[in-house]
Give the backbone structure.
Amino acid sequence: MNLLDAIDNLNIWKQGDKRAPHKPLLLLYALAEQVRNPDARFEFFRIEENIDQLLNDFYKSFPGRRHHVNDPFWRLRGDGIWKVESDGIIRETSSGGAYVSDLRKYNATGSFSKGVVQEIRNNPEVALQAARKLLNEHFPESLHQDILETVGLDYKTISAKEYISKKTKRDSTFRQKVLHAYGYSCAVCGFNLRMKTLPVGLEAAHIKWHQHGGPDAENNGLALCATHHKLLDSGVLALSDNYQIILSEWIFDPDRKNSFIREHHNREIRLPRNSNHLPKMDYIRWHRKEVFKEPELVLI
Ligand SMILES: [Zn+2]
C-alpha cells in the first residue's frame, strides 16, 4: 500500500462524532522523524511519552493519567503501512488492542513498511503531502502550524498553493455570513479593527469543527479576533450553555499580564444580532466535550 492511499483509507475508531486524533498524531510524529532519518525505528517505551504529550496538547489533557498510546501504536499495523516487532509475544486485548505492559516489556518497536520507507527516501515531499492530508482531515487550520512545528515538519513547504486555495474556497461565504452576524466584531472582546473598510485580524471560527461535520452556518460560527479564535480551537476557551465564556485551568498567566484574557471568564459573549444565528447548543456541547481542556478555571 502506498502512503497517500493508506492515509486516505486510514481506519479511525468511530463513535458518533467523537474525536480520535490518536493515529493521526502518531503518524505525524513518525512521518516527521522518518523524513529526518530514513532508518527511523520507534521503540514504544521511548516514544510513548512524546505521543502522550501531543495528545495532551492537541486533544485532551487528563491530569495525572496517560493517554492510551498503545492503541494507535498497535492498531496502525492494520492500515498497511506500519509494522511492530518485539522481543516476545505481545498479548492482545479482547477488543484487538495490545497490553501496554507487554509493549514496554518486550521492547515493541514500530516502523513504516519497506515500501513507505522507500517512497519517502525517494521523495520526502510525499511525507509532507501525507501530513497535509492528516491535518486537513482531523484539525482546524488554526492548529496546523502549531502541530507541524511541534513534530518538526516544515510548515512553509506544506502550505502549497493547492492547500491554500482549497481552504479559501470552503471558507469564503462562511466567513462573510459569520462576521456579518456578529456585526464585524469579536464575540468575546469586541475587537473590530479595520483597514479602510476591510476587517483585519478578525476571523470566522467553527464551533463544531468542520472535520467532524460542523456546518458552515451562522449558528456554528463565532466572529473572533485571531487570539480568541486560537484559544477556542486550542480548547482553552469554550462556551457554557448560557453563552458565557469559560476559560480552562490550563492557561497559565504567571505574571498576571494577560488580564485582558482572564477578564472575560464567565461573561456572556456579544450575541449575534439575529436570534436565528445564536450558537446551537449541540455544537457548543460538542466543542466542550471534544475540544475544551477541562477543568474550568476558578478565579481567585
Ligand atoms: Zn477577541
